[in-house]
Write a structure and sequence with these properties.
Residues 2-106 form the FAD-binding FR-type domain. Keywords: 2Fe-2S, FAD, Flavoprotein, Iron, Iron-sulfur, Metal-binding, Oxidoreductase. Strand 3 (41-48) and strand 4 form a beta hairpin. By secondary structure, the protein is of the alpha/beta class. It has helices at residues 79-86, 124-137, 158-167, 194-203, 219-231, 285-291, 327-331, and strands spanning 4-16, 19-25, 41-48, 51-58, 68-73, 93-97, 114-120, 142-149, 172-178, 212-218, 239-245, 263-269, 272-278, 309-314, 317-319, 334-336, 340-342, 347-350. The strands form four sheets. The chain has a six-stranded antiparallel sheet with strand order 4-3-6-1-2-5, covered by helices on one side. It has a five-stranded parallel sheet with strand order 9-8-7-10-11, sandwiched between helices. It is globular. Helix content is 19%, strand content 33%. Bound molecules: FE2/S2 (inorganic) cluster (FES). FE2/S2 (inorganic) cluster (FES) binds at residues 298-301, 303-308, 324, 336, 338.
C-alpha cells in the first residue's frame, strides 16, 4: 500500500520571494515512518482544481534536529508549487508519503572526509540536509559548497547556510555565484556551467582533493559538473547527483521505444498478487495498474524520483527514461514502473522490495 499520512503544517517560512520552507508536524506514533536520511524527499498529495496531484520535494532539515522540513520553490505555471507557496498556511494539513529516495549520504561519526556540493537554485534543499548532518556528525569532515543563483535575493536557506558557516568556520565554506549580479570576484559572476567549473577548479579549488561530491540542479548543470569533476580526478562512483528538473514532462512517451503490445502481467504488493491487463493505450505499467485500481507508489512519473521502483521477478520489460536507478540496481532487476512496459506476457513485478 502506498503510505501517505495527513500531517499538520507547523510552520511556513518564506525563504525568497518565490520559495518557502514548510515544517511538518509528525505525531509520536508516526515517527518511525518518517525517519529519513539526508538527501531524501517527501511526496505531497493534494486535490488542486479538482485533480489529484503529487509532487516530490527534498527534505532540507537534518534528521539530527528531530524536525521534518521541505523547501518548495514556485515554478512558472507550477500548479502544486504555486498552491504551496500562496495558499497553504500553518495549521493546515496535507497528505505526505513516507520519505523516499536514494540520493544522499549517511554520515558516520568514525568517518572523516572532504566533501564538495554543487547546487543551483532550489537544488540546495537536499544538500543543506546532507551538509548540516555531515558537519555535525563527522567532526573532522569538511564541506565546500558551490551555490549558483540569479541574484542574492533568490538564495534559499541563506540564513541556515550562514549559521553553518558561523558554527563550523574551519570546516565549511560557500562560494556563491550570481548570474545577474556583479561580484568582486569576476569568476563568481555567471551561471555554473562546465567552463566556470573548470575555471573554479583551476583557480580556487583542487577538485582532486575531494573524497565525494554531491550535485543537485537542472540537467545541464548536472552533466557539466559530472564531466568537470571526473576530468579533475573524482571517480564517477563518488559523485552523487539528484535532478530536480528534467527537459521531459511527466509521461513524455518515454517508453515508446518499446513496441506497444497488449499483455497481461502480475504485480505483487503487500504480499498480494494482482493481474493487470496492459493495453496499447497505457503509457506504462504504472498507468495500467493505476487504471485497474492498484494503489502503487509514484510521484514524478518522469524517471527522476524512483518512488515507483519495483523488481522484475519474471519476464522482460523495457524501461525508457531513468535518472534515478544506479547501474547495479538495474543489474539486480529493478525498473521504474512509470517508465516501463512489458516486452511480452508473463511479467511479474514485485513492489515490496
Ligand atoms: S514516479 Fe518518479 S521515477 Fe517513477
Amino acid at each position: 500500500m502506498t503510505v501517505f499520512h495527513r500531517l499538520n503544517i507547523a510552520d511556513i517560512t518564506r525563504e525568497t520571494p518565490d520559495a518557502v520552507a514548510i515544517t511538518l508536524q509528525v505525531p509520536k506514533e508516526l515517527r518511525d515512518y518518517y525517519y529519513y536520511t539526508p538527501g531524501q524527499h517527501l511526496t505531497l498529495k493534494a486535490r488542486i482544481g479538482g485533480e489529484e496531484l503529487r509532487r516530490c520535494y527534498s527534505i532540507c532539515s537534518s534528521p539530527l534536529e528531530m524536525r521534518l522540513q521541505i523547501g518548495v520553490k514556485a515554478i512558472p505555471e507550477g500548479r502544486f508549487s504555486g498552491f504551496v507557496n500562496t495558499q497553504l498556511k500553518a495549521g493546515d494539513s496535507i497528505e505526505v508519503m513516507v520519505p523516499q529516495g536514494q540520493f544522499g549520504y549517511q554520515p558516520h561519526p568514525d568517518t572523516s572526509g572532504n566533501y564538495l556540493a554543487i547546487a543551483a537554485g532550489s537544488g540546495i534543499t537536499p544538500l543543506l540536509s546532507i551538509i548540516a548532518t555531515t558537519l555535525q556528525q563527522e567532526t573532522d569532515s569538511q564541506f565546500t559548497l558551490i551555490y549558483g543563483n540569479r541574484t542574492s535575493r533568490g538564495v534559499m536557506f541563506r540564513e541556515a547556510l550562514t549559521d553553518l558557516k558561523n558554527r563550523y568556520p574551519q570546516r565549511f565554506q560557500v562560494l556563491y555565484l550570481f548570474s545577474q549580479e556583479n561580484s568582486d570576484i569576476p569568476l563568481l559572476k555567471g551561471r555554473i556551467d562546465g567552463e566556470r567549473l573548470k575555471d573554479i577548479g583551476r583557480i580556487l579549488l583542487d577538485y582532486s582533493a575531494f573524497d565525494r561530491a554531491f550535485i543537485c540542479g537542472p540537467e545541464s548543470l548536472m552533466d557539466d559538473a559530472h564531466i568537470a569533476l571526473e576530468q579533475a580526478g573524482i571517480p564517477a562512483g563518488r559523485i552523487s547527483s539528484e535532478r530536480f528538473n528534467t527537459t521531459l514532462s511527466n509521461n513524455d512517451k518515454a517508453v515508446d521505444s518499446a513496441e506497444r503490445i497488449a499483455t497481461r502481467l502480475t504485480i505483487v504488493q503487500d504480499g498480494l498478487e494482482q493481474e493487470i491487463e496492459m493495453s496499447t493505450e497505457d503509457n506504462s505499467i504504472l498507468d495500467a495498474a493505476m487504471r485497474q485500481g492498484a494503489d502503487l507508489p509514484y510521484a514524478c512519473k518522469g524517471g527522476v524520483c524512483a518512488t515507483c521502483k519495483c523488481k522484475v521477478l519474471a519476464g522482460e520489460v523495457e524501461m525508457g527514461i531513468n535518472y534515478s536507478l544506479e547501474p547495479d540496481q538495474i543489474e539486480a532487476g529493478f525498473v521504474l514502473s512509470c517508465q516501463s512496459r512489458p516486452k511480452g506476457d508473463g511479467v511479474v513485478l514485485d513492489f515490496d522490495v
